[in-house]
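Researcher: We're teaching a course module on how sequence relates to structure. For the next exercise, students receive a sequence and then see the predicted structure as tokens, so they can try to spot secondary structure elements on their own. Here is the exercise chain.
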Amino acid sequence: MRRRSLMIAVLLACFVVFPLSAAKAAQEIHLGTSTVGGIYYNLGVPISQVLNKYIPEVHVTPEITIGTVENLRLMGQEKMELGVTLTFVAVQALNGEGTFKEKIPVRTIMHLSPLVNFFGALADSGIKTHEDLKGKRVNLGQPGGLDQNSKNLLAAYGITPKDIKPSVMGIGASVDALKDGKFDAIIFTIPLMNQLLATHKATIIWPDEAHLDKMVKATPGYGKWLMPPGTIKGVDEAKYVPDFGCTLSCREDMDPQLAYKMTKALVEHLDELTAMFSEYRHVTKEWAANSMGIPHHPGAAKYYKEVGLLK
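Model: And here is the predicted structure for the students to work with:
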């Protein structure tokens, strides 16, 4: 009897030290982003924080990668559950086209902020148009998505990588390289251009609407966006810019209830995403529900239908 009482006491002590609530660890979720300073990284970190806040049964870690292609391949290898992806590359992965030898069954959780890239240079470079980039040292951004946006934008003007001196440095580091005179022009995001304009005079190489339409027609998944005045420092008029399409993608085999909870948490807390990264201010619930040509995950679709955003 004494031994039995001792065993019960030991078991009770274990429950005190290791309560049942702690027995089940949070599910680890890996979210592929991009290099530090890249738009995918800046979009991904707030996503992980919101999901961790409102879905306590998971722990989402934003992983540094080289971008879309790696994110999709890692999801295909079941090494990641989520990834920030460039739409036209995700379409290729879904169909087993382009750089993808096998089909990767990805699905959409949410359409993220407009993905805007454009070329720019320091004001004293003498570069003002896309044609001026010929023969110049131009950073296209890291491989895996951003470099493809750059090439497709240049292609609309009939410019190939052979016409320039191309590099594929990470976009964040390339701004410092531009300041140091190592590049003549680089591909930008809106936040990085605003950062540069805070300390340097710069020239934005605006694509005209005709060439944007040409690029959009040539590449499914691309679009254009009328950027509001004031989005970039000193730009006081609305400007058409490329929207290269950016989505939060997941694996097809994600648990539908988890996908539902993720979609609900993100769409219903857009204000918190915006507080952490200002580009989310352009995202509405209607914008978020656009699948961008990739089928919604059934869990995400369930949420969007419940709130009247999908039929």
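Model: If you want an answer key for the exercise: Residues 164 and 194 are 25 Å apart (CA to CA). The chain is about 40% helix and 20% strand.
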